[in-house]
Amino acid sequence: MTSTAVAVKIDNEIKKRLKNLAETKQRSAHWLMREAITQYVEREEKRESFRKDAIRAWEEYQDTGLHVTGAEVQDWLDTWGTGTDNEKDVPPCHQ
Asked: pLDDT, tens digit, for every residue of 31-89?
């Protein structure tokens, strides 16, 4: 993995808090910043993926009209964990 230096301006209050947290965690401020950025990027990528999936699902519903009602899903979920013989199959989509 190749690294590149990037300058980030932060206010003095955040800098003090970062320094204190780094001391508490026995990590460098640099490590904490890299970790925070990595976690933020991963979280936002997941959110964007979820948003795109939701849009695709909505578009598919608009095109086909196929759906499952909330009551049908709840009825199915209520059987989860009740044993293989009692668990219902996924309800089929319908119009």
From this structure: 999 999 999 999 999 999 999 999 999 999 999 999 999 999 999 999 999 988 899 99
CA–CA distance, 59 with 2 (Å, rounded to integer): 40
* Chain CA centroid to CA 56, Å: 17
Cα–Cα separations (whole angstroms), residue 12 to 22, 35, 53, 62:
15, 20, 40, 51
Q: Decide: helix, strand or coil at residue 12.
A: helix
Residue corresponding to tokens 């979920």: 77
Query: In the numeric block, which tokens belong to residue 36?
Result: 């925070």
Letter for the amino acid at 17? R
List, as one string, the DSSP characters of 16-75: HHHHHHHHHHTS-HHHHHHHHHHHHHHHHHHHHHHHHHHHHHHHHHHHH--B--HHHHHH
- The structure tokens listed for 37 are 């950025």
